[in-house]
Write a structure and sequence with these properties.
Blueprint lengths: L4 E3 L1 H4 L5 E3 L2 E10 L2 E7 L7 H14 L13 H12 L3 H6 L2 H16 L1
Antiparallel strand pairs: 1-2, 3-4
Length: about 120
């Protein structure tokens, strides 16, 4: 994901409103550990190789019996870890999202990982 901004219908009508493609608007307000979230900023472009390796290490430590994942980019666990790192939130927040939001965020994460 990049910082490109997409014009909304209002902007196409001559107004100056733009939408940041990095922002994911949740399907409904979501409360996690006492904080209400309505959107998450998924700043994948801010991630470094070190961040991705750290996510891989976390995934490996979470795998039962040290199970090896041959293609980590399609692992939901890895995608959730990367999305959490991009959003600067705990992975437990990502895992606690309603299924609809969880799935859509993981698709964005996978798109980033598979480029």
């Amino acid at each position: 994901m990049s910082e490109n901004k997409t014009k909304t219908p209002a902007a196409e009508a001559g107004q100056t409103e733009t939408v940041d493609e990095r922002v994911y608007k949740l399907s409904r307000p979501f409360t996690f550990e006492g904080t209400e979230y309505t959107e998450l900023l998924l700043d994948f472009d801010s991630l470094t190789g070190g961040d991705l390796l750290s996510c891989e290490g976390q995934m490996n430590s979470m795998s039962p019996g040290n199970e090896v994942v041959p293609v980590k980019q399609i692992s939901q666990t890895y995608q959730a870890l990367v999305a959490a790192r991009a959003a600067k939130v705990p992975v437990d927040l990502i895992k606690a999202l309603p299924g609809k939001d969880f799935s859509k965020i993981l698709v964005r994460s996978q798109n980033f990982l598979l480029g």
